[in-house]
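Quick one, probably user error.
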C-alpha cells in the first residue's frame, strides 16, 4: 500500500486547478516547480527578484529564436490544514481546509480585473464538483507508484483583502477558502446521477428525460416474511432444529425518496411540488434512471459501468414538506413506489 494522502498532493492539485482558467493567466507558488505531471519533485524556495527588482516576472528563453522574453505570473500561496484523517485502516479518506492567497499587481487596472475574473472562475469550478487527480507515493517495497485519488470540493467567497506596497509597486491580496474531501477507495454521492421522465397514461410512452440533482437520495426495500415449521420434533437428534421457524420471502417492495431544494425552473421538480399540494385524479407514472460513474484504472477516466445503471417505473408515493420559513429556502422530500404498469 502506498503512503496516505499528503498536504503536498492537495497543494499540487490546487495549483493545477488555478492554472486551468480559461483566461490562461499563470499562477505560481514556491513549492511547485514543474508543469510535468510525472515530475513530483517538491522544492521550497523564496521568489527571487530579477534585475529590476520584480518578483512576479521571470525571463524565458526560446531555444529556436534565441529570444529572451519576460513572462508575468500571479504569485499565490496555499496553506493546507493538517487534515482530518478517517481512523480506519481500510479507509483512506481525509478532509482538508485550504486557504489560498493570491497577490495581484494592482497598478494596472486591466491586470487586476482580468485576474479577478480568473479567480472567480476557478472558485466557481470548485463548488459542488468532483475531480480525479494523480499522486505519487511509495508502496510497501519502497517503489514509487502513481495512484489516482477522488476529490470533492466546495469553496467560499473571495476576500479582496488589503493593498500592500512592495518595491514601490501596489498589490492587492485576495484570499479564498476551499474545502476538500479526498479519498483513494471510497465513493461519493456526487458520482450518482439521475434522470426522470413522465409516462403518458394513454400511450404508455416516456417523455423527455430531465436531469435532477437531489440533496439526498434514500432507497428502501421491504420484505414480507412468512414463517413455516417444516418438521415435527419426533426425533431427539433433530428436535431443536425442527422447533425453529424457517422464514421465506412472501413479497418484496422497492421505493426511493428524494429530498430537493425547490427549483421551479426545473419542470420535473415543479410537477413534484404541484403534486404534493394537489394530488391528481390519476397517479402520475415516472421513469427514474440512475447511473453511477466509477474510476477506471485502464483508461484513467470516469466511466459508467452497466452493472451500476438502474431504471425503475414508479408512481408518486408520499411527500414530506419541510417547514416553510420566510427568508429560508424551501425544502421538501418526495417518495416513490414501484408502478403497477
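Nope, works fine. Designed sequence:
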Amino acid at each position: 500500500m502506498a503512503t496516505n494522502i499528503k498536504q503536498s498532493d492537495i497543494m499540487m492539485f490546487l495549483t493545477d486547478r488555478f492554472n486551468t482558467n480559461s483566461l490562461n493567466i499563470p499562477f505560481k507558488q514556491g513549492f511547485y516547480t514543474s508543469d510535468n505531471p510525472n515530475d513530483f519533485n517538491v522544492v521550497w524556495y523564496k521568489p527571487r527578484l530579477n534585475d529590476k527588482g520584480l518578483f512576479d516576472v521571470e525571463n524565458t528563453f526560446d531555444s529556436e529564436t534565441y529570444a529572451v522574453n519576460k513572462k508575468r505570473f500571479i504569485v499565490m500561496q496555499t496553506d493546507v490544514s493538517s487534515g482530518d484523517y478517517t481512523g480506519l485502516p481500510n479507509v483512506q479518506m481525509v478532509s482538508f481546509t485550504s486557504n489560498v492567497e493570491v497577490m495581484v499587481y494592482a497598478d494596472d487596472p486591466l491586470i487586476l480585473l482580468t485576474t479577478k475574473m480568473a479567480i472567480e472562475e476557478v472558485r466557481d469550478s470548485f463548488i459542488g464538483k468532483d475531480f480525479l487527480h494523480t499522486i505519487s507515493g511509495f508502496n510497501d517495497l519502497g517503489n514509487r507508484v502513481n495512484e489516482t485519488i477522488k476529490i470533492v470540493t466546495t469553496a467560499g467567497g473571495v476576500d479582496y483583502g488589503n493593498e500592500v506596497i512592495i518595491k514601490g509597486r501596489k498589490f492587492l491580496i485576495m484570499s479564498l477558502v476551499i474545502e476538500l474531501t479526498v479519498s483513494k477507495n471510497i465513493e461519493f454521492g456526487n458520482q450518482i446521477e439521475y434522470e426522470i421522465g413522465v409516462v403518458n397514461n394513454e400511450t404508455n410512452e416516456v417523455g423527455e428525460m430531465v436531469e435532477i440533482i437531489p440533496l439526498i437520495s434514500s432507497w428502501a426495500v421491504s420484505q414480507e416474511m412468512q414463517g413455516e415449521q417444516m418438521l415435527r420434533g419426533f426425533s431427539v437428534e433433530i428436535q431443536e432444529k425442527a422447533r425453529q421457524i424457517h422464514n421465506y420471502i412472501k413479497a418484496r417492495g422497492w421505493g426511493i425518496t428524494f429530498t430537493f431544494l425547490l427549483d421551479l425552473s426545473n419542470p420535473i421538480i415543479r410537477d413534484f411540488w404541484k403534486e404534493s399540494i394537489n394530488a391528481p385524479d390519476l397517479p402520475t407514472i415516472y421513469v427514474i434512471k440512475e447511473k453511477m460513474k466509477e474510476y477506471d484504472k485502464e483508461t484513467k477516466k470516469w466511466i459508467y459501468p452497466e452493472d451500476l445503471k438502474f431504471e425503475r417505473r414508479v408512481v408518486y408515493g408520499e411527500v414530506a414538506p419541510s417547514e416553510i420559513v420566510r427568508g429560508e429556502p424551501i425544502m421538501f422530500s418526495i417518495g416513490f413506489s414501484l408502478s403497477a404498469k
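The domain at 190-338 is CATH 2.30.110 (Pnp Oxidase; Chain A).
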